[in-house]
Amino acid sequence: MPELPEVETIKNDLRPVLEGARFTGVSISWPRMVLQPSVDELCRRLPGHVIREIARRGKYLIFRLDCGESLVLHLRMTGSLLLRSRNDAHSEPVPYVTAVFGLDNGIELVFSDRRKFGTMSLLQDESELAAKLGPEPLSRSFTVEDLRSSLSRRKAPVKAVLCDQKFLAGIGNMYADEALFLAGIHPLRLASSLSQEEVVRLHKAIRRVLKTGIRNAGASISDYRRPGGQRGTQQLSFNVAHRGGQTCKVCATPIERLPVRNRGSYFCPRCQSAATCS
DNA sequence: CCCGGAACCTGAAGGC
DNA sequence: TGCCTTCAGGTTCCGG
User: Fold this and answer.
1) Strand B: which of residues 4-33 in chain A lie with Cβ below 7 A?
2) A163 touches strand C (CB under 7 A)
3) Which helix (H) or strand (E) element contains residue A208?
4) Fewest CB atoms less than 10 Å from the CB: which of A41, A73, A254, A278?
5) pLDDT in tens, A13-47
């Protein structure tokens, strides 16, 4: 599932190919993916505009256009963005296509999405996006004190709070599990119950797992692929995420899985003590 | 405001 | 082998 490191990798891969290119056309084969404006209006307004810059905010990918508007994409769980050359007759057809963007440099950007949860919007400005997202965990301005004060106001399990995009932007199920493992914190611990020491460890762990994820070009657990089709390698470095039944790399205890808010949470019962859970 | 659960989807995996 | 059920999890919406 694309989380911050996966979307950051996609952004990094797309930038050299697409920045400066001009949209020539859009074809939408799954209309419900377009949140705003209408499909017709988006298809009418996008062509002709140049991609000035590609950016990421949380798990959103943002194409800033020369007209000042922004095309905002979200891959949700199974979305991929793939680069294809328009006149390459030999390339394999892309499955589960929901949208195709044509560009004036001969490149096509294909949105492929097995479960069709991915979305796109053409926004006048990004304030709408900013309103629903918390701080960027890798920005310098995200401090231990920010984490401490926001955790202190939340009574839900720390795992659920970490995945809340309004609390912190970009963390999902996999990286939340990894951060909690590194910090030695059980996923069911109530957010407000963490000690100052644990908050310090968690802050460090969050930044570390995200940076490692980016360095390894994301985790290809299921559908995630880079725009060139390559897999990421972060899944090989996970300590707990999606490792149910396998043993802990630190203490050899079997990794367990338990549902937190209906999401599978993987953790080491020995390294992540269950003391003071609810 | 905060919390938890359902809905949105469909391929993959597991049970019988 | 094949049908059926369950699982996967990001976001939004809704009720408590």
Assistant:
1) 32
2) yes
3) helix A196-215
4) A278
5) 999 999 999 999 999 999 999 999 999 999 999 99
